[in-house]
Amino acid sequence: MRIYTRTGDKGQTSLIGARTDKDAPRVETYGTIDEVNSFIGKAMTELDSTIFSDLLTDLEAIQNELFDCGGDLSNVKPNRTYKMSEEPVEVLEKRIDELMEEAPLLERFILPGGSPAAATLHIARTVTRRAERLMVTLMKVEEDIPTVVQRYLNRLSDYLFAASRVANSRINIPDNEYVRSAKVFRNGGRAKKVEE
Fold this sequence. Notes:
mainly alpha, 5 helices, about 5% strand
């Protein structure tokens, strides 16, 4: 089976229902979501299944949901329907609360790092934030964009932060606090940041 088609050699790619430039905001957005998915896959290879079976279950579901997000963004057919719904957003919120309850109390910003899995989850988190910024731009320049994708990405970055902390704490690796950080979290990080 040949995976190259040569149809993109002039800088265009196929959407579902049209063709567009490879650097179009829509393509940039779902391409960045694909980057997130790849880093999540890498993190999964770094998590011990005997210790992190719940995180691995979460992350596998997230990988499928990210494919749904990308598919929804690539669909420009008239009268299109979308795969993403509010349910995955609600599931992420529940898991964020559970993981933050488990993680050690938090008062200050932390530096990305610790275990290999935690470091990779932090990379996935920051790329998710970039995907979300691109999503906001896309919603400004195009109509009929599935806004649930933006809400999902917003929650996902929080989930990945919580998961990275648990990835460290369960194997007794402490968070490395940003030394010049003021106290920015209330209730040990169990609530929103003070400035939000």
